Design the sequence.
């Protein structure tokens, strides 16, 4: 895979910033693992949740930074783990215009595959690469190769 022409230079570990949107039952432990890893490598983990108290608690417990949506747009990578595709659409609408060149957005929402496919080319993602990774496939693979077709 090659980066788009608008992509910035690859971030160094000292400057790597990863944002995580959605700290529910699946998102919280995923964001916690990212925060621990980034902290040990000199990076920054930004977190946002519609309930601000959850993001603040995450920051206190895991060393992430509770952030506004506007602050998330400066991240090199954005992970989203939301209840439905409808919520993903809302965040894409809000964040897409302000994303940094070369941002990579990884969506882990168990939403509708058709909605994920529709979001991929939106405005050619103007400035971002998008990857849609249904959680159900990740969860199935995590159970072991004997269950993976």
Sequence:
């Amino acid at each position: 895979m090659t980066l788009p022409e608008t992509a910035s230079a690859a971030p160094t570990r000292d400057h790597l910033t990863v944002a995580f949107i959605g700290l529910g039952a699946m998102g919280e432990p995923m964001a916690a693992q990212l925060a621990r890893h980034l902290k040990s490598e000199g990076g920054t983990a930004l977190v946002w949740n519609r309930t601000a108290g959850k993001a603040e608690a995450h920051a206190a417990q895991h060393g992430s930074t509770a952030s506004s949506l506007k602050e998330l747009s400066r991240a090199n990578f954005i992970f989203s783990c939301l209840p439905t595709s409808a919520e993903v659409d809302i965040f894409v609408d809000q964040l897409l215009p302000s994303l940094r060149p070369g941002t990579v957005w990884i969506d882990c929402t168990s939403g509708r595959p058709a909605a994920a496919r529709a979001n991929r080319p939106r405005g050619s993602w103007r400035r971002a690469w998008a990857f849609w990774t249904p959680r159900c496939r990740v969860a199935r693979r995590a159970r072991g190769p004997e269950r993976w077709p």
About this structure: The mean pLDDT is 77.
